Each structure stands twice: as C-alpha cells, then as structure tokens.
Amino acid sequence: MTTPLRFPNGPFLLAALACCLGGEVSLANNPNLVVPRVRKSYVTLTAAEITDFQDACIALKAVDPGGVDSTLLGWDDFVKEHAAFMMNAHGGPAFLAWHREFLLRFEDALRAVNSGQFANVTIPYWDWAVDGFPISVVGGDGAAVTDIVTTGPFAYSTTNWNVVINPIAGPELKRNFSPPLPNKIFTPAQINALMALPIFDLAPWSSASANTSFRNVLEGFKGPGFHNAVHGAIGGNMGFVNSSVNDPVFWMHHANVDRLWCQWQDIYPTYLHHIPTSGAPMGQNTLDSMPPFGVTPCDATNMVAMNYEYDDCVGPCTYDPGHAYAGQTYSQVLMKAMI
To answer: What distance, in Å, lies between the first and last C-alpha atoms of the chain?
Structure first.
C-alpha cells in the first residue's frame, strides 16, 4: 500500500504594474459587471445559510460517488483532482492561484447541483486567527482511538458521508485535533507579520524559498505554518494531501487562505501578484497553463473578473474605468509591462 503524502506539520523583484491600478471597482459606474458573490465568515452566517451550505455539500457528495462517470461532476471528482495534481498545487508559486481556481470551480458545482437548488450558496471561510473550529458547520473532532467524526451532518452515521477516494482506514470521515481545538490556531499579530511581507515569492520558487516569501510563509513551509499547520492540527483526512478534500472543512480553510491572499493583494497594489514569469517548474510561472484548468496563475489574480469577493476584501481589479488598463485582464497588463 502506498503511503499517502502528508502535509508538512511543524514550524514551518518586483515593484511594477498591479492587478488593480486605481481603487475598487464601482458597480454604479461599470454596468458591465454584475453583483459578485460574497464569501462570509462562518460566524456571521444565518442558520439558513449554514443549512444551505451543508445541504449543498451533501447533494454534491451524492453525485457519482467515486467519480466514475466522466459526464457527471460530484464531490469525489474534486477529491480525485486535488490528489492527481498535488505536485502542481503545492510547494511552488502557483499554490495560491491553483487553489483559487479550484475553490471557484467547487463553488460553481455547489451552486449548480440539483438543477441549481442552492444557486446562491458560497463557501464560508474560517478565520483561524480569530475564531475557533467551525463545529456549527462541519461538526467536531473525531472519537478517541478511531478518529471517526460522530457529530454534525458529515458524520458517517448520518449516511450522508461515505469516504470513497483515498480513505484512511475505512469510509468514515476522520479528524484528530492537535493541539486541542476549537481554540483559534494563530493570532492577529502573526497575520500582521505575514502581511508585512511585500514580495510574493522568491527563488528557488519552491518550499525552500526564503521566509520573506509571502507565498511560502502562507503555504506554511516557513514561519508559523499557516496553511500546512492547519491541515496538521485537524488531522485525520485533512492531514493527508490526497485525502484532505474528503473533509468539508477543507474548503473553509482554503477560503481563508485565499482571503489572506486577497488582503495582501490590496495592501500591495504596485507589486505583481504572481511571480516569476520564468524559472519555476512548468505550470508555476505567471503565464503558464495550470493543469488541469487551462488558465494561468496570472488569470487567477483578478478576483473581479472571477466575480467573487469576501465580506472584508473585494480584491484587486483591472476594471476601474478611470485607468488606461480598464477592462483588461491581468495577463494583458503584464504582457504590456514585459514589452
């Protein structure tokens, strides 16, 4: 049996044109845009919003268990995709862009399931520097010895949740909190230190990049751990790259990672929000196609073009009509800078 790849669990340029060259987009003066979807902190969700997210997850999980029908798109397809492309998605500059695209496609699937029954649902985020584990949304820790989750709508006993792809010792969803949760894992001061890093990434464009690389510190290979440490703290399915998407909290965790990138992009509007343009492995450079999506890391920097935002971060844009670059994608802006 192949040993699954674990998330690391432990302590873990260029000032030029930007994605947003002049302030936030205004719907009032830009009629070509529609109101974006807004991802909210789980602590602000209404009971109905929590139920909709839970029910949408359960409905998507029921579509094509095991991901065997290529004409259908279900939850297990996302588990398989994350496992199949784990080397593209982690340990390099495209980590944030790859998961931003992954999140959006999953959110689209939730909104489309059951003929659009949950058309307004969005992925809630878990701010692990402020709030404790989202028990109210995804249930709690696993049981002693077995690690089996026995609370919430995703417990195996509910018959809603059967782990098919890359299970860990059985079909049950598993967690093993360490340190004990639901206490918050990081502090606002640690997030402030993260945001003080102005350089997106650094050579050698990998997990070995310096602790002044925003991407590498947020991913968790340097600094206090952040992304990687949260996976390790939850344990169970979340502790393994190829099984982590089996746990619904994966999406809430990564929504927060994406939100922090959004905030960083807003703080540094005069820096390119993905580098390098060359020198990193294929799929990691700014204008490379990211497998399996067929979009570039550069494309994923423009949240306005992707039509979503967070309740405390609208994200960078290139749509301000007062600018010469209005209406262009980030890739087009970057190409002009390279000429």
So the answer is: 51
| Omega cis (within 30) before 224 | no
Backbone torsions φ then ψ of 281, nearest 5 degrees = -55, 155
160, 149 in Cβ contact below 8 A? no
Q: Domains (ranges, CATH) in the chain?
A: 37-134+187-227+241-338 (1.10.1280.10)
Please write the tens of the pLDDT for every residue from 234-257.
999 999 999 999 999 999 999 999
Question: Residues 6 or more apart from 284 whose CB is under 8 A from it?
Answer: 88, 92, 93, 94, 205, 297
Token pair in block for residue 66: 């095991």
* Contact between 39 and 285 (Cβ < 8 Å): no
Amino acid at 60: L
CB of 102 closer than 8 Å to CB of 89: yes
Adjacent-strand bridge partners of 240? 6
List the one residue out of 66, 64, 237 whose CA is nearest residue 165: 66
| Residue 214 · residue 194 · CB < 8 Å | yes
Rounded CA-CA distance 154/173 in Å is 7
Angle at 221 (CA atoms; ends 218, 226), nearest 5 degrees = 40
pLDDT-derived band at 20, boundaries 50, 70, 90: very low
pTM: 0.87
